[in-house]
Give the backbone structure.
Amino acid sequence: MPRKLKTYQTSLGFYDQAIAAPSMKAALQAWGASSNLFHQGAAKETDDPDIVAATMAKPGVVLRRPVGSDGPFTESAELPTDLGEGEGKSERKPKRKPNSKSTKRPAKTARKPPRKIDDQAARKAAIAFEKEERRREAERRKEEAARARERARRDKAVATAQAALDRARREHEARTEEIEAERAALDARAEAEQGRWDKQRMKLEQALRRARE
């Protein structure tokens, strides 16, 4: 039997978020929360009839509305329209008419009683939630497979580039060794030539001195 769904609500960033889920853990996973928002007091179960009806109509789907508003929850909510205007509004006070009596505050509207959901609708919502969970899980697996393919492609490219660098380095070292060997041979030839020339020069200089005497 599918587990009975409950409606959970939180505020993340610019949005209030709500979802119909079988547990707090499932709600946190759907919200992508990295910590337990319920223990922190940032999330709660709600029995607001409008929110419950909206989430039960799309179980497992995260619904949103601009943070701090009392509008309906939908799949695609617009950003709050009063961002950055709070300071200016707080400085402006409404003008009071002279000799006017103080206005009474409007009476608080009675809270709507929670809307009951029959067993058939609850089972239908729970089945829809599990279907949405399977869809999200399939999407996660698809994304993980795509990331794995990208990692494999990147690793292959890195391995190819590293192999080319290592091959070029070995070729450079081999050529350097050849050049060093040729340089050593040239040095030896130059040293031998210098020794031969020194002997020849000494003999010729001696012969030149004897000719001058």
Q: What stands out?
A: The chain is about 55% helix and 10% strand. Residues 25 and 36 are 8 Å apart (CA to CA). The first strand starts at residue 6 and ends at 12. Strands lie at 6-12, 15-21, 43-45, 63-66.
